[in-house]
Amino acid sequence: MRTIDWRDGRIVAVDQTGLPHDVRMLEIGTTAELVDAIKRLAIRGAPALGVAGALGVALAVRDEPEDRDRDIKALRAARPTAVNLAWGVDRALARLGDGPDAVLAEALEILEADVRDNRALARRGADWLLEHAAGPIDVQTHCNAGGLACVEWGTALGVLRVLRERGALGHVYVDETRPLLQGARLTTWELARLGIAHTLVVDAAGPSILARGLAGAVVVGADRVAANGDVINKVGTYPLALAAARAGAPFLVAAPESTIDPASPAGDAVEIEVRDPDELVHIGQTVVAPPGTATLNLAFDVTPADLVTAIVTERRLIRPARGERP
Asked: CA-based angle 210:169:119, to the nearest 5?
């Protein structure tokens, strides 16, 4: 099953707000519909957002020429922290002078390349882990960086899939990922479908999993990698990196080259998305805080480069903690 695809002139995508209980597909025919799906996280995950951005440009230049510039601007800004979205928009838009068919062809190439690239980085990540830890390797992960965050394979979970194929994966500890529970809802769903043994833990327990020696490595994805090697990922990643450093466990980031942003010199230059306060004070329909409670719903955090043992992409291995820069 592909998380996002192009079919009969429309974007078809898994509606990730329904998981794990309701597997339903969205059919998206306009850029406005796509922006809405991205903002409410029906479509999410950095590589998938890159594909969505490119396909959204194809929709805009084909069907909405009078509103094209406005709609593309709104699409590019729908999730400001994840650089892949703007990357996909800009790459497809660069073919505009060659006509709508060329724009669509570029978008479809981005879609197909995502599968190839993620398989390549997953193999590289598994190779590197096996050089630094004896299998079977027990791994901790945060948020969702599996097939649901990409087209069909996955970045961080792609690495785990390769380890499993090689008989080198032990147990996987999954952080719940408050407040929208991408770990609890999405990662556990994917791991169950793959038949990978896993245990769900609350976010606050994540560092203790490493301190107790239950996991020997951390593998996560990324929404942006700055030019100095700082990693911007789902909030809660930074504490895991601190705990991994204390425990002497490798901290591996699996992300395609499109996630590396040379225009951002360091993590503090990246806009961190602040989301709706209701996400913090509600669990489902249940209110869990008194009325009027102030909130700060940061969607991402910055892990400094010196805490990142390695970054694997489809092309290379980067070791920020040793001073290597993307």
From this structure: 110
